[in-house]
Structures are given as structure tokens and as C-alpha cells.
Amino acid sequence: MRYDTIIVGAGPGGIFSAFELTRLAPHLKIAVFEAGHPLSRRRCPIDGEKIKSCLNCKSCSIMSGFGGAGAFSDGKYNITNDFGGTLYEYIGRKQAIELMQYVDRINVQYGGEGTRLYSTSGSQFKKLCIQNKLKLLDASVRHLGTDINYVVLENLFNELKDKVDFYFDTPVIDIELTEDGYTVNTSGGKFDAVNCIISVGRSGSKWMEQVCRALDIGTRSNRVDLGVRVELPAVVFSHLTDELYESKIVYRTEKFEDNVRTFCMNPCGIVVHENTNGIVTVNGHSYEDKEKQTDNTNFALLVSKHFSEPFNDSNGYGESIARLSNMLGGGVIVQRFGDLIRGRRSTVKRIEEGLVTPTLTATPGDLSLVLPKRILDGIIEMIYALDKIAPGTANDDTLLYGVEVKFYNMEVDLDKDLMTRYKGLYIIGDGSGITHSLSHASASGVYVARNIAGKAQ
After folding, report:
1. Cα–Cα distance for residue pair 381/157, rounded to 1 Å
2. Which residues of the chain have pLDDT under 70?
């Protein structure tokens, strides 16, 4: 089977590549290969009652399938160059913002109408943060919610399904160069194409490294983010979340001068499991539907670790810490902040007697046996710093789930068109190592699609 363009991965980058190609060049024959399930079949078996922990499914429905790892996220699209990746270094700041705004308009058009666009511009909290040695990053944030995000993805799939050949549950094994394009070897056979767009996300990091080695494509060591997910009463952060929804706050620790940041804030949300390459970590979701909302807010506190020569396996470092957590807790560990400070493990009884009811079934334990001291010290400092702008953050009953790990691909050598050294082979989204967010990944997909469509006229 021969195509004009093959897209590997049906996450946000792949979806928006396909969407823009069908819009600008409907005559092109396009295929999308995805290792996971169609959206309608993506169901995590964990129900909190009969099944309370990860079963290590062959294909994790939280991480893989149509919509990628963002399908069951809380659907936050941050329109900013201050975080979320370095796409602007390749295509320019102005164009990067314009593409993210375009993605936002499509999301609104396909089911996101009525959702709110938040902004930190002119926020009173900037001053409050500065006064307490914290930095509030600039961004506009469209919050779809996990429920509306699903609707948007469903509508986009319905728009594309008759225009694009989708191959679900069909992992791509490798990619070969040919005289006039590429052969994509999959579990379902061989397929040829003139152009190939790779958009495999963070969960495809190991596969991406193999492809780069096989094709002699240069890569640079990236980073890994390590930390915990904090859960506390929603009222503690309500003055921030009501105005900003997603507040990206950075703190520079006094002890080690490391940067600790908040990430993925979920007002009235839930804490969830995540499975990456067989490793169970933690994440958070939130909903627009008030009936699905909880009394808790959760967010991640992450410390970024960059490594220099001779070590170049940042993801391996993060995986080893996550595996240690899995070994000690059988999955995710939860600990009261007060217990952590007192140097003791949490117990079921202490958590049950606390003021915060956990939204995730996790094993009470001791995070100090898992996270390196430097990282844990930074997280503790950050919690006390946040307590100054959101009193109650450092309460004894605040829950810490661990570990949360954000894996990043090695940054791939790409030109200004996001193309490798081989003509027609593009690498986009989080799989490229240059984007780290839904909005940036989606924008990179639009950008490459316009490039291909322009040459196909």
C-alpha cells in the first residue's frame, strides 16, 4: 500500500497533521498508524473498587490510542512560549503563538465552545508571587476538561475517519529509507510513503531513540522531571484557580538553587495512575462537568534534572526511581506531608483520620526511601513557599503521591521545517524532544502539514 504521507502516532501532533493535510491538500492519500486503541475502545480497567491498581495492560489506554497521552488529561492548552517546549526556536515566537491560537480555534469549533480561556496577563498574583520569592509564568490557558477534551477528540476523529486511513493496534516496528521515500514496517505489514511524519509522544521515547540510531539521526541529551503530585482541599488554592485555573509557578531553592515548578494543576480534580513502558507513575485529571468534580485540587511539583557527559540516559535515571517506588509500594505511594516532615511512613489509619480524602487508591509509605534527598528537599522548600501565597498548602494532612515522572525524548536534530537530514522525514510533538505540551505538539503538527501541503500544490 502506498501513501503520499504516513503519520506515525495519533496523539495531538499526528491528529493536527492529518487535520491540516486534509484541509489544505484533500487529494493526498494519508495513513495514520497508532499502537493503541481507537478512542471508543480506550478504557482503563481500574475502577477503584474491583480493580484498584495497574494491571500492566499490553496497551495502556491512558497513554496510548487516538488522542495520545493527552486524551484523558484535563485538556489544558497553554498558549505561551514561556513553557511547553522550544518550538519557537525553530519557527519563531510569533508564528508559534499564531499556530497555538489556530489550534485553540479548532478545538473550540469541534466541541470546546463555552469553555473558558484564562490568562495570567495583569494578574494580581504576579506581585504576590514575587514578594514571596516565586515566579508566575505568563500564559493564556484554554481549559477543556477531561470530559470536553474527549468530545473534541471524538468530533475530530469523525471529521477525519473518511478522509484518512487509520490503522489502530498497529505498532510501527521500524522505518526504512527507499529511493523515493520511506517504507514503514508495522505489525500489520509494510507500507510505503513519500513523506513520513513521526509523532510518537513521550511514551514512544525508547522507540524514537532506536529509529534515530538506525538512521544515524543526531540527538542531544535532554532532561527528566521528578517529583510528586500534591492533593489538598480545593479551597486552599481556589483564589488562584478561580482566576487563573492553571498557575505555573517556579521557585528557586535556597539550599541547592534548583528550580521547582508547579505543573498540571487540576482544580476539583482527581489523581490517577499512569503507565509508561510498564512503569506505574501518577498524574491528575479534572472535569468541566460539576457533577464529576471533587472537593480536592491536585498539582505536580517537579524538579528538572539535566545531565552532562558521560551520562546520557536521563530517562533511564527517572525510570530507576519510578521502579523503586513501584517495588516498595506495588505501584504509587502516598504520604501525608506531616509524616514526611516527621520522618515516618504514612499508614492507612493516619490517612483515614486526616482532613484530605484521597481520590486515588495508593499504598501509604515513605517517599524519602524513593526520591533523592536533593529533590525531596526542594519539594519541601517549595511547599513552604506556596504556603505563603496559599495558606494551608503545608498542612500536615496534605497528601503527596509519588512518584511523578515526566520523561522527555532526546532532542532530535531537526531543521527549521522540523525535518531530519532526510528529505520528507519529519519528527514532531513530544517525540521530537522540542515540545512538552498539548498546544505545542498540536502546533508542530499544523506547521509540518502546511509545509507538505505547500509542496504538493
Report:
1. 44
2. 48, 222
